[in-house]
Amino acid sequence: MKKSNDIFLETVHNIQQTYGYIPEREINQLAEKFDQPRAKIYGAIKFYSMLYTEPTGKYIIRICDSLSCHLKDSHDLLLAVQDYLGLEDGETSSDQLFTLEIVECLGHCGEGPVMMVNDKMYTELTKGKALEILQDCK
Ligand code: FES
Fold it and tell me: For residue 109, which of 17, 68, 94, 128 is within the disulfide window of CB 3.0 to 4.6 Å?
């Protein structure tokens, strides 16, 4: 039997799959469904970094800038990507194509620098390879 937390996460995941984020009206419905205050539902959603309460870009770009990647020049890669996209951490492009996030370790510390594009992981990146990947995002 599933625990209520598992059911909650499955529900919000499905909502995000449908809309790309968790809209306000869905937060209200979740509060009713799980008999919890709206603020508690909102707090639970904000706890998970891969859940969003605002629309995101079609491509969510996550760049690790934790220590191991940082020692392999992830910061230079990050600056090149920020320059190419014209975005700061947490911003979404006006055409809704990209959202950029600077994140903590993505679990590939020995293969840095590391970047994720939606669910796809890219390792041992150079600035040039990263920009090629982004140019293919249409
Ligand atoms: S430090 Fe970058 S993936 Fe772990």
Answer: 68
